[in-house]
Amino acid sequence: MFRIQPLVSVLLCCFTFWFHISFGYLITCSGIVPMRYRKDKVSITDFGGVGDGKTLNTKAFREAIYRIQHLRRRGGTLLYVPPGVYLTESFNLTSHMTLYLARGAVIKATQDTWKWPLVAPLPSYGRGRERPGGRYMSFIHGDGLRDVVISGENGTIDGQGGIWWNMWRQGNLQFTRPNLVEFMNSRGIIISNVIFKNSPFWNIHPVYCSNVVIRYVTILAPTDSPNTDGIDPDSSSNVCIEDSFISTGDDLVAVKSGWDEYGIGYGRPSSHITIRRVTGSSPFAGIAVGSETSGGVEHVLAENIVIYNSGIGVNIKTNIGRGGFIKNITVSQVFMENVRTGIKIAGDTGDHPDNRFNPNALPYVKGVTLKNIWGVKVQKAGSIQGLKNAPFTNICLSKINLHGMTGPRSPPWKCSDVSGAAIEVSPSPCAQLSSPQQSGSCANHF
After folding, report:
1. Is the pTM of this model over 0.85?
2. Which helix (H) or strand (E) is 119 found in, with range?
């Protein structure tokens, strides 16, 4: 399925073993959404589906899902996709269903981009993320759904994103590119045991959702594929992401909550997000918060993370005009290898949807704890740069050791407009985090 560098693989096993020893069992998020057993089962072939890689199966998928929606079998219905390559246009899921991909099954997006349906922009963004106006609907889409599962035997959902990436590079996009999978205004979602590859834009995007579990997934895209974020929980709550491998062209996991004045107006935060046992590489960030955080982000826990061959290990990013808040963020038990910057917390990142943003809408960043982080071949240890009129406070670093490319330590940290504390951090952090008088403000985080 994929190859992980031997050192990374060993470290991931060590982290898992540490969990067994420390807690007596492997911590999981299985209780957030119970896995449903569907007695009623249908196959895509029952509706004329043909897995030859050439036949267009849009009608088959839409008719199968229409049947599931309107017959409303008790306990829901499982839609089985047998081995084969099923070419299709985008389609909508329905509540109380499981989309199940057998081993060797591939659901592949058509490259007829001119047939792709448009949907309204997200209200917390005010426009498409890339272009003004609407946006192309995600390849697999769901809005206002309950109790939906996408699972299987490591079958593949292939977005065939190359044509979209080229349109972006050439400046030919009329609207924002489609995500691979998006759930909106939905609850009780499980995504597991599926390979996602070559998304046109972001891969998995739960937005305005609650109770979402994403586990045992593999997400793949070339390192030069633009904006192919792995998983982006957006203005969502009670989301668990675990036991997955991600290698894409943008952030592996990025927590978001709306863009400038639109996100402030919509006012829905992302909260109670858990990310654990995720391994991957990216030219951008491994674990990110932002930069779209205008609705607020709070209570995020990321632990047991392995990041290699990446731009930034942990990146918390916001900007003037964003407003909102970032608070109670904890990142722990992280190993990183061959990254440009280990840790970056910045208040000058990201663009704006239009010129109507309020430059006085400053983000509030408080209570960020980074601990038990080990890195080798790290070019720069880190930087924490707040805003002059909105300093970042209670930034707490503990037991962090970042080794440089040629010597035992990375170059020094860069900091401004920040306060907090640091304990057992190498190389030594900036003076703003080194004062013994400040350590009391972070004592409960260590």
Report:
1. yes
2. strand 118-119
Burial of 194 per CB tally in 10 Å (0-12, 13-18, 19+)? buried
- The catalytic site residues sit at 250
Instruction: Yes or no: say if 241 and 215 are a contact pair by the CB < 8 Å rule.
Output: yes
Kindly report, residue by residue over 37-66, the tens digit of the pLDDT: 899 999 999 999 999 999 999 999 999 999
CA distance 343 to 310: 12
* Residues present in the chain in total: 446
Low-confidence stretches of the chain (pLDDT < 70) are 1-26, 30, 406-411, 435-446
Rounded Cα distance between 390 and 392, Å, is: 7
**1-30+251-446 has CATH 2.160.20.10 classification:** yes
Instruction: Give the residue from 187, 191, 188, 171 showing the smallest Cα distance to 179.
Output: 191
How far is 363 from 324, CA to CA, in rounded Å?
A: 5
DSSP letters spanning 189-232: EEEESEEEE--SS-SEEEES-EEEEEES-EEE--TTSTT--SB-
Report the alpha-carbon distance of residue 436 to residue 213 in Å, rounded: 41
Query: Residue ranges of the alpha helices (H) in 26-117?
Result: 58-71
